[in-house]
Amino acid sequence: MRPDYATAEDFATWRRNASDCDIDALRHIIKDCHNAARAMADHNVEKEGFYIDQALTYSDELRNRLS
Question: pLDDT tens for residues 38-60?
Fold first, then answer.
């Protein structure tokens, strides 16, 4: 069973996947992660953090491309 928090393997996978996404896909994933984090806020704070970490990882890729 996987933990609710993000692992180093999760971050590596997200960075790999983000590098293959176009700008629109990155924006969609980031928005979806923020929505998922909000949904978890009152139920599971570890999972909320997982989705925030995921959003930030994809946001890093978007920021790098736009700068």
Answer: 999 999 999 999 999 999 999 99
